[in-house]
Protein backbone atom coordinates (compact mmCIF):
# COMPACT_ATOMS: atom_id res chain seq x y z
CA UNK A 1 0.00 0.00 0.00
CA UNK A 2 2.85 2.38 0.80
CA UNK A 3 4.32 1.95 -2.66
CA UNK A 4 0.99 2.82 -4.28
CA UNK A 5 0.64 5.98 -2.22
CA UNK A 6 4.12 7.16 -3.11
CA UNK A 7 3.87 6.32 -6.77
CA UNK A 8 0.91 8.64 -7.03
CA UNK A 9 2.63 11.33 -5.00
CA UNK A 10 2.20 13.89 -7.74
CA UNK A 11 -1.60 13.48 -7.83
CA UNK A 12 -2.19 16.17 -5.21
CA UNK A 13 0.74 18.32 -6.18
CA UNK A 14 0.53 21.77 -7.73
CA UNK A 15 3.18 22.22 -10.42
CA UNK A 16 3.21 25.96 -9.77
CA UNK A 17 4.86 25.37 -6.38
CA UNK A 18 8.20 27.06 -5.73
CA UNK A 19 10.51 25.80 -2.97
CA UNK A 20 13.01 28.39 -1.73
CA UNK A 21 16.06 27.67 0.40
CA UNK A 22 17.56 30.64 2.25
CA UNK A 23 21.13 30.46 3.58
CA UNK A 24 22.14 31.63 7.05
CA UNK A 25 24.43 34.35 5.72
CA UNK A 26 21.42 36.03 4.11
CA UNK A 27 19.31 35.80 7.27
CA UNK A 28 21.86 36.92 9.87
CA UNK A 29 24.61 39.52 9.91
CA UNK A 30 27.86 37.56 10.12
CA UNK A 31 29.51 39.94 12.59
CA UNK A 32 26.61 41.09 14.74
CA UNK A 33 24.49 37.91 14.53
CA UNK A 34 21.40 40.08 14.13
CA UNK A 35 18.57 39.75 11.56
CA UNK A 36 19.11 41.29 8.11
CA UNK A 37 15.73 42.99 7.96
CA UNK A 38 16.33 44.61 4.57
CA UNK A 39 16.83 41.27 2.84
CA UNK A 40 13.92 39.65 4.68
CA UNK A 41 11.61 42.51 3.69
CA UNK A 42 12.55 42.16 0.01
CA UNK A 43 12.14 38.39 0.22
CA UNK A 44 8.63 38.50 1.67
CA UNK A 45 7.57 41.22 -0.74
CA UNK A 46 8.70 39.06 -3.66
CA UNK A 47 6.93 36.03 -2.24
CA UNK A 48 3.79 38.16 -2.25
CA UNK A 49 4.39 38.94 -5.95
CA UNK A 50 4.78 35.25 -6.79
CA UNK A 51 1.61 34.36 -4.93
CA UNK A 52 -0.23 37.09 -6.84
CA UNK A 53 0.91 35.34 -10.02
CA UNK A 54 -0.55 32.03 -8.86
CA UNK A 55 2.51 30.39 -7.33
CA UNK A 56 2.52 28.54 -4.05
CA UNK A 57 5.71 29.11 -2.05
CA UNK A 58 7.48 26.96 0.54
CA UNK A 59 10.40 28.42 2.50
CA UNK A 60 13.23 26.26 3.82
CA UNK A 61 14.94 28.80 6.02
CA UNK A 62 18.26 28.52 7.78
CA UNK A 63 19.28 31.16 10.32
CA UNK A 64 17.85 30.01 13.65
CA UNK A 65 21.21 28.90 15.05
CA UNK A 66 22.96 32.06 13.86
CA UNK A 67 20.33 34.33 15.39
CA UNK A 68 20.38 32.45 18.70
CA UNK A 69 24.15 32.24 19.27
CA UNK A 70 24.39 35.63 20.93
CA UNK A 71 21.65 34.66 23.39
CA UNK A 72 23.66 31.67 24.60
CA UNK A 73 26.92 33.65 24.62
CA UNK A 74 28.69 31.78 21.82
CA UNK A 75 30.29 32.56 18.46
CA UNK A 76 30.00 30.56 15.22
CA UNK A 77 33.67 29.56 15.45
CA UNK A 78 33.53 28.20 19.01
CA UNK A 79 30.01 26.80 19.33
CA UNK A 80 29.73 23.07 19.99
CA UNK A 81 26.79 20.77 19.28
CA UNK A 82 24.91 21.52 22.51
CA UNK A 83 25.57 25.25 22.03
CA UNK A 84 24.05 25.12 18.55
CA UNK A 85 21.07 23.12 19.76
CA UNK A 86 20.40 25.71 22.46
CA UNK A 87 20.97 28.55 19.98
CA UNK A 88 18.43 26.99 17.60
CA UNK A 89 15.86 26.91 20.40
CA UNK A 90 16.50 30.61 21.06
CA UNK A 91 16.73 31.76 17.46
CA UNK A 92 13.74 29.96 15.96
CA UNK A 93 11.06 32.05 17.74
CA UNK A 94 12.86 35.23 16.68
CA UNK A 95 13.09 34.08 13.06
CA UNK A 96 9.45 33.02 12.93
CA UNK A 97 8.31 36.26 14.50
CA UNK A 98 10.12 38.21 11.78
CA UNK A 99 8.50 36.11 9.05
CA UNK A 100 5.12 36.45 10.75
CA UNK A 101 5.32 40.24 11.07
CA UNK A 102 6.59 40.78 7.53
CA UNK A 103 4.05 38.34 6.14
CA UNK A 104 1.28 40.17 7.97
CA UNK A 105 2.14 43.33 6.03
CA UNK A 106 1.13 41.51 2.83
CA UNK A 107 -1.78 39.54 4.29
CA UNK A 108 0.19 36.27 4.28
CA UNK A 109 0.04 33.63 7.01
CA UNK A 110 2.95 31.34 7.92
CA UNK A 111 3.34 27.98 9.64
CA UNK A 112 6.36 26.26 11.13
CA UNK A 113 7.27 22.70 10.12
CA UNK A 114 10.25 21.20 11.97
CA UNK A 115 11.63 17.97 10.52
CA UNK A 116 14.27 15.37 11.29
CA UNK A 117 16.05 12.82 9.11
CA UNK A 118 13.46 10.18 9.94
CA UNK A 119 10.67 12.29 8.47
CA UNK A 120 12.30 11.81 5.07
CA UNK A 121 13.88 8.35 5.36
CA UNK A 122 10.88 6.56 6.92
CA UNK A 123 8.26 6.19 4.22
CA UNK A 124 5.17 6.48 6.41
CA UNK A 125 6.49 9.65 8.06
CA UNK A 126 7.45 10.98 4.64
CA UNK A 127 3.86 10.66 3.45
CA UNK A 128 2.46 12.16 6.67
CA UNK A 129 4.79 15.14 6.33
CA UNK A 130 3.82 15.55 2.70
CA UNK A 131 0.13 15.56 3.59
CA UNK A 132 0.69 18.24 6.24
CA UNK A 133 2.55 20.49 3.81
CA UNK A 134 -0.13 20.05 1.15
CA UNK A 135 -2.84 20.94 3.67
CA UNK A 136 -1.01 24.15 4.57
CA UNK A 137 -0.68 25.09 0.90
CA UNK A 138 -4.36 24.33 0.37
CA UNK A 139 -5.15 26.77 3.19
CA UNK A 140 -2.95 29.40 1.47
CA UNK A 141 -0.45 29.30 4.33
CA UNK A 142 3.31 29.54 3.69
CA UNK A 143 5.12 26.55 5.26
CA UNK A 144 8.46 27.57 6.76
CA UNK A 145 10.49 24.38 7.04
CA UNK A 146 13.68 23.72 8.92
CA UNK A 147 15.48 20.83 10.54
CA UNK A 148 14.68 20.46 14.23
CA UNK A 149 18.18 21.47 15.27
CA UNK A 150 17.30 21.63 18.97
CA UNK A 151 16.91 17.86 19.27
CA UNK A 152 18.88 16.28 16.43
CA UNK A 153 22.31 14.73 16.84
CA UNK A 154 24.91 13.85 14.21
CA UNK A 155 23.48 10.34 13.85
CA UNK A 156 19.89 11.41 13.15
CA UNK A 157 20.24 14.74 11.39
CA UNK A 158 20.14 15.76 7.74
CA UNK A 159 23.02 18.14 8.41
CA UNK A 160 22.29 20.81 5.80
CA UNK A 161 19.21 22.66 4.64
CA UNK A 162 20.22 22.42 0.97
CA UNK A 163 19.41 18.71 0.69
CA UNK A 164 16.52 19.05 3.13
CA UNK A 165 14.98 21.65 0.82
CA UNK A 166 15.58 19.41 -2.20
CA UNK A 167 13.73 16.59 -0.46
CA UNK A 168 10.86 19.00 0.17
CA UNK A 169 10.85 19.94 -3.53
CA UNK A 170 10.73 16.24 -4.38
CA UNK A 171 8.02 15.67 -1.78
CA UNK A 172 5.63 18.28 -3.19
CA UNK A 173 6.54 17.78 -6.86
CA UNK A 174 7.61 21.42 -7.12
CA UNK A 175 8.10 23.18 -10.44
CA UNK A 176 10.99 25.40 -9.31
CA UNK A 177 13.61 25.08 -6.60
CA UNK A 178 15.63 28.21 -5.81
CA UNK A 179 18.70 28.20 -3.56
CA UNK A 180 19.55 31.75 -2.49
CA UNK A 181 23.10 32.19 -1.27
CA UNK A 182 25.92 34.76 -1.12
CA UNK A 183 27.35 34.00 -4.61
CA UNK A 184 25.89 34.33 -8.11
CA UNK A 185 25.91 30.57 -8.70
CA UNK A 186 28.34 27.76 -9.47
CA UNK A 187 31.85 28.66 -10.64
CA UNK A 188 34.36 26.39 -12.33
CA UNK A 189 36.70 27.04 -9.39
CA UNK A 190 36.55 28.98 -6.13
CA UNK A 191 34.94 32.34 -7.04
CA UNK A 192 37.76 34.23 -5.29
CA UNK A 193 40.35 32.75 -7.65
CA UNK A 194 41.47 34.79 -10.63
CA UNK A 195 39.71 33.79 -13.83
CA UNK A 196 36.86 31.99 -12.08
CA UNK A 197 33.99 31.55 -14.53
CA UNK A 198 30.29 31.30 -13.67
CA UNK A 199 28.61 28.18 -15.06
CA UNK A 200 25.17 29.30 -16.22
CA UNK A 201 23.67 25.87 -16.98
CA UNK A 202 24.51 22.44 -15.58
CA UNK A 203 22.91 19.19 -16.70
CA UNK A 204 25.33 16.79 -15.00
CA UNK A 205 26.44 18.01 -11.58
CA UNK A 206 29.06 15.25 -11.23
CA UNK A 207 31.31 17.15 -13.64
CA UNK A 208 31.68 19.99 -11.14
CA UNK A 209 31.82 18.27 -7.74
CA UNK A 210 35.60 18.65 -7.42
CA UNK A 211 35.34 22.43 -7.80
CA UNK A 212 33.02 22.79 -4.81
CA UNK A 213 34.96 23.10 -1.58
CA UNK A 214 34.50 25.26 1.49
CA UNK A 215 31.48 26.53 3.38
CA UNK A 216 30.44 29.72 5.13
CA UNK A 217 31.13 30.45 8.77
CA UNK A 218 27.42 30.53 9.66
CA UNK A 219 26.12 27.81 7.38
CA UNK A 220 26.50 24.02 7.56
CA UNK A 221 26.53 23.46 3.81
CA UNK A 222 28.82 24.62 1.03
CA UNK A 223 28.52 24.41 -2.75
CA UNK A 224 28.94 20.62 -2.58
CA UNK A 225 25.65 20.16 -0.73
CA UNK A 226 23.99 22.60 -3.13
CA UNK A 227 25.04 20.46 -6.09
CA UNK A 228 23.80 17.35 -4.30
CA UNK A 229 20.51 19.14 -3.69
CA UNK A 230 20.30 20.24 -7.33
CA UNK A 231 20.83 16.66 -8.48
CA UNK A 232 17.99 15.44 -6.24
CA UNK A 233 15.67 18.15 -7.54
CA UNK A 234 16.59 17.43 -11.17
CA UNK A 235 15.66 13.81 -10.60
CA UNK A 236 12.25 14.97 -9.35
CA UNK A 237 11.64 16.92 -12.56
CA UNK A 238 12.28 20.28 -10.90
CA UNK A 239 14.11 23.28 -12.39
CA UNK A 240 16.78 24.32 -9.91
CA UNK A 241 18.56 27.64 -9.57
CA UNK A 242 21.50 28.78 -7.42
CA UNK A 243 21.46 32.55 -7.22
CA UNK A 244 22.68 35.47 -5.13
CA UNK A 245 20.11 36.56 -2.58
CA UNK A 246 20.93 40.25 -2.77
CA UNK A 247 18.52 41.49 -5.40
CA UNK A 248 15.49 43.75 -5.39
CA UNK A 249 13.32 40.82 -6.47
CA UNK A 250 15.38 37.85 -5.30
CA UNK A 251 12.96 35.15 -6.49
CA UNK A 252 10.85 36.45 -9.38
CA UNK A 253 13.90 37.83 -11.18
CA UNK A 254 15.38 34.32 -11.17
CA UNK A 255 12.22 32.62 -12.41
CA UNK A 256 11.80 35.29 -15.10
CA UNK A 257 15.40 34.86 -16.27
CA UNK A 258 16.28 38.48 -15.59
CA UNK A 259 19.58 38.00 -13.79
CA UNK A 260 22.69 35.87 -13.73
CA UNK A 261 22.53 32.55 -11.88
CA UNK A 262 23.19 28.84 -12.41
CA UNK A 263 20.30 26.82 -13.80
CA UNK A 264 20.00 23.04 -13.45
CA UNK A 265 17.34 21.83 -15.91
CA UNK A 266 15.17 18.89 -14.81
CA UNK A 267 15.87 15.40 -16.08
CA UNK A 268 13.57 14.65 -18.99
CA UNK A 269 12.41 11.18 -17.98
CA UNK A 270 10.69 11.70 -14.65
CA UNK A 271 10.45 8.73 -12.30
CA UNK A 272 7.59 7.85 -9.98
CA UNK A 273 7.33 9.21 -6.46
CA UNK A 274 8.10 5.74 -5.07
CA UNK A 275 11.28 5.43 -7.17
CA UNK A 276 12.41 8.94 -6.24
CA UNK A 277 11.89 8.23 -2.55
CA UNK A 278 14.04 5.08 -2.78
CA UNK A 279 16.79 6.58 -4.92
CA UNK A 280 17.29 9.98 -3.25
CA UNK A 281 18.79 9.33 0.16
CA UNK A 282 20.05 11.68 2.84
CA UNK A 283 21.95 9.05 4.79
CA UNK A 284 23.20 5.53 4.07
CA UNK A 285 21.43 2.97 6.25
CA UNK A 286 23.52 0.09 4.93
CA UNK A 287 24.89 -1.56 1.80
CA UNK A 288 25.25 -4.88 0.01
CA UNK A 289 28.00 -6.18 -2.23
CA UNK A 290 26.97 -8.36 -5.19
CA UNK A 291 28.68 -9.86 -8.24
CA UNK A 292 29.16 -7.95 -11.48
CA UNK A 293 27.07 -10.60 -13.25
CA UNK A 294 24.11 -10.01 -10.94
CA UNK A 295 24.54 -6.24 -11.14
CA UNK A 296 24.19 -6.51 -14.92
CA UNK A 297 21.22 -8.87 -14.59
CA UNK A 298 19.37 -6.28 -12.52
CA UNK A 299 19.04 -4.18 -15.66
CA UNK A 300 16.16 -6.39 -16.78
CA UNK A 301 13.99 -4.82 -14.08
CA UNK A 302 12.46 -8.11 -12.92
CA UNK A 303 15.39 -9.67 -11.04
CA UNK A 304 15.25 -9.49 -7.21
CA UNK A 305 18.28 -9.74 -4.94
CA UNK A 306 18.18 -13.02 -3.02
CA UNK A 307 20.13 -14.07 0.03
CA UNK A 308 22.44 -16.35 -2.00
CA UNK A 309 23.43 -13.33 -4.13
CA UNK A 310 25.04 -11.41 -1.27
CA UNK A 311 28.82 -11.18 -1.03
CA UNK A 312 29.12 -8.58 1.73
CA UNK A 313 26.91 -6.66 4.14
CA UNK A 314 27.64 -3.32 5.78
CA UNK A 315 25.72 -1.40 8.40
CA UNK A 316 23.10 -2.04 11.06
CA UNK A 317 19.72 -1.49 9.45
CA UNK A 318 16.05 -2.29 9.97
CA UNK A 319 13.44 -3.93 7.78
CA UNK A 320 12.21 -1.28 5.34
CA UNK A 321 15.50 0.64 5.20
CA UNK A 322 16.95 1.49 1.79
CA UNK A 323 20.29 -0.19 1.03
CA UNK A 324 22.96 0.84 -1.49
CA UNK A 325 23.99 -1.95 -3.86
CA UNK A 326 27.63 -2.21 -5.07
CA UNK A 327 29.31 -4.41 -7.67
CA UNK A 328 32.72 -6.07 -7.29
CA UNK A 329 34.61 -2.91 -8.25
CA UNK A 330 32.83 -0.86 -5.59
CA UNK A 331 30.62 1.01 -8.07
CA UNK A 332 27.12 1.76 -6.83
CA UNK A 333 24.59 0.19 -9.19
CA UNK A 334 21.22 0.37 -7.44
CA UNK A 335 19.29 1.22 -4.28
CA UNK A 336 16.50 -0.85 -2.83
CA UNK A 337 14.14 -1.44 0.06
CA UNK A 338 15.31 -4.33 2.24
CA UNK A 339 12.84 -6.90 3.61
CA UNK A 340 15.11 -7.97 6.51
CA UNK A 341 17.03 -6.45 9.39
CA UNK A 342 20.81 -6.55 9.17
CA UNK A 343 20.89 -9.21 11.89
CA UNK A 344 18.40 -11.41 10.03
CA UNK A 345 20.20 -10.89 6.74
CA UNK A 346 23.56 -11.93 8.16
CA UNK A 347 22.01 -15.12 9.52
CA UNK A 348 20.46 -15.86 6.12
CA UNK A 349 23.58 -14.99 4.13
CA UNK A 350 25.99 -17.22 6.07
CA UNK A 351 23.57 -20.15 5.94
CA UNK A 352 22.41 -20.15 2.30
CA UNK A 353 21.54 -23.86 2.27
CA UNK A 354 19.37 -23.86 5.39
CA UNK A 355 15.64 -23.19 5.24
CA UNK A 356 14.86 -19.51 5.87
CA UNK A 357 11.85 -20.33 8.05
CA UNK A 358 14.01 -22.57 10.21
CA UNK A 359 16.58 -19.78 10.64
CA UNK A 360 14.19 -16.88 11.27
CA UNK A 361 11.12 -18.52 12.72
CA UNK A 362 8.73 -17.26 10.04
CA UNK A 363 8.01 -18.10 6.42
CA UNK A 364 9.78 -16.07 3.73
CA UNK A 365 10.91 -16.51 0.13
CA UNK A 366 14.34 -15.20 1.03
CA UNK A 367 14.13 -12.28 -1.40
CA UNK A 368 16.22 -9.56 0.23
CA UNK A 369 15.10 -6.80 -2.13
CA UNK A 370 12.13 -7.39 -4.39
CA UNK A 371 12.45 -6.27 -8.01
CA UNK A 372 9.68 -3.69 -7.65
CA UNK A 373 11.59 -2.12 -4.75
CA UNK A 374 14.89 -1.75 -6.66
CA UNK A 375 15.90 1.44 -8.47
CA UNK A 376 18.82 1.29 -10.90
CA UNK A 377 21.28 4.19 -10.97
CA UNK A 378 21.85 4.93 -14.63
CA UNK A 379 23.73 8.20 -14.80
CA UNK A 380 20.94 10.23 -13.22
CA UNK A 381 22.20 10.24 -9.63
CA UNK A 382 25.36 11.14 -7.79
CA UNK A 383 26.86 7.84 -6.69
CA UNK A 384 27.92 7.20 -3.10
CA UNK A 385 31.31 5.72 -2.29
CA UNK A 386 31.29 2.14 -1.11
CA UNK A 387 32.30 1.40 2.49
CA UNK A 388 35.99 0.59 2.77
CA UNK A 389 36.95 -3.09 3.25
CA UNK A 390 37.80 -2.40 6.89
CA UNK A 391 34.32 -1.01 7.47
CA UNK A 392 32.34 -3.67 5.63
CA UNK A 393 31.55 -7.00 7.18
CA UNK A 394 31.50 -10.19 5.13
CA UNK A 395 28.19 -11.92 4.73
Automatic annotation (TrEMBL):
What are this entry's molecular-function GO terms? ATP binding; glutamate 5-kinase activity; RNA binding
UniProt entry tagged with the keyword Nucleotide-binding: yes
One GO biological-process annotation of the entry reads: L-proline biosynthetic process
Signal peptide (UniProt feature, chain positions): none
* Binding-site list for substrate: 62, 149, 161
Which key words tag this protein in UniProt? Amino-acid biosynthesis, ATP-binding, Cytoplasm, Kinase, Nucleotide-binding, Proline biosynthesis, Transferase
List the catalysed reactions. L-glutamate + ATP = L-glutamyl 5-phosphate + ADP
Q: Name one GO cellular component term.
A: cytosol
**HAMAP family attached to this UniProt entry:** ProB (MF_00456)
**Known PANTHER family for this protein?**
GLUTAMATE 5-KINASE (PTHR43654), ISOPENTENYL PHOSPHATE KINASE (PTHR43654:SF1)
- Protein's name in the database: Glutamate 5-kinase
Organism field: Qipengyuania pelagi
Gene encoding this chain? proB
Amino acid sequence: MAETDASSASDGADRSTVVVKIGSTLIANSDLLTPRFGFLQRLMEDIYRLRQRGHKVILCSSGAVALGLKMVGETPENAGVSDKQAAAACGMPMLLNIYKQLGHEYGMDIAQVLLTLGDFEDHRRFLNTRNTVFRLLEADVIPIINENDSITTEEIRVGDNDRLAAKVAQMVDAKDFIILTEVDGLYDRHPDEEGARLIEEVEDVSEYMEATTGKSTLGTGGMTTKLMAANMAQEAGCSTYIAHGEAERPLSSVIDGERTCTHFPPHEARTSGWERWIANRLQMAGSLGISDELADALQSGDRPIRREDIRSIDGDFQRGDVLHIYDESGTERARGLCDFTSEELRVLAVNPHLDAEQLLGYRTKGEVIRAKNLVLLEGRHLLWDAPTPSEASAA
